[in-house]
Amino acid sequence: MALFYQPEIRSGAHFLEIEESKHCIKVLRMKVGDTFHLTDGKGYMFKVEITDANHKKVAFKILDQKELTFLNDFHLEIIVAPTKNLDRLEWFVEKATEIGLHQLSFVICKHSERKILKTDRLIKKAVSAMKQSKKATLPYIKEAESFKKWMSDHTDEQAEKFIAYVDKGHESHLKNALTAGKKYQILIGPEGDFAPDEIELAFKHGFQPVSLGPSVLRTETAALMATTIANLINQ
Q1: Cα distance between the two ends of the chain
Q2: 44, 47, 53, 54: CA torsion to nearest 10
């Protein structure tokens, strides 16, 4: 059964937006009295019943709601330099949403090939992946900002903080460094890796160097590896 999305349902928005309404009525041919499941993207799943089968604005009433506990026991933020190829970045957003994360932040580094990033399409990809995988948590996707500004404004002193970069001398693998049930901030650099002064700045803000294994990974692969490891540690 299809899963629908209404982020403001708990604030009284008991209707579907136009695209969701069109899919519900025109494609699935649902009618008054039919039921479906809906999420607010904030951890809650709802069972609702259609009260007005308008293809521009489906109205419904709530029959049941529950909070899904998956992703509640830890908090994962991936901070990554956007890739030059947007298709690869969209692929990562889709897969990471399916696996599970809470926040995705983008940083522009000295070696970044892409200096400007619009997040509208990435958010749509995340919504689609959340619905397809029947999840109730939509990751918060932040606008890109410079590495230095992000480090200054958003470093979380309460989080376990890690930076993954290319260095054969790393002894600690991410899977051994994470503690279950914590908040994590994990930095993933661009294809050209972090600049030395960026690594030093991360160290000054409490980030620990970690390895993701012996292979040299593409940016989006490394980010997905980190997402997967954090989820496995918390299962």
Answers
A1: 26
A2: 0
User: Among positive and negative, which fits the CA dihedral 169, 171, 172, 175?
Assistant: positive
Q: Which amino acid is at 19?
A: E
- What is the pLDDT at residue 10? 93
- CB burial readout 30-46, b (16+ within 10 A) else e: beeebebbbbbbebbbb
Q: Is the pTM of this model over 0.90?
A: yes
For residues 50-74, b (16+ Cβ closer than 10 Å) or e, as one string? beebbeeebebeeeeeeeeeebeeb
Report the C-alpha gap between 41 and 135 in whole angstroms. Answer: 8
CA distance 75 to 165: 22
Q: 3-class SS at 165?
A: coil
Cα–Cα distance measured from residue 169 to residue 210, given in angstroms and rounded to the nearest whole number: 10
Angle at 7 between CA 134 and CA 26, to 5 degrees: 70
Which structural domains are found in the chain, ordered by start? 3-67 (2.40.240.20), 75-233 (3.40.1280.10)
Nearest by Cα to 82 from 54, 49, 57, 104: 104
Give the residue-averaged pLDDT of 28-55. 96
Residues 95-114: pLDDT tens digits? 999 999 999 999 999 999 88
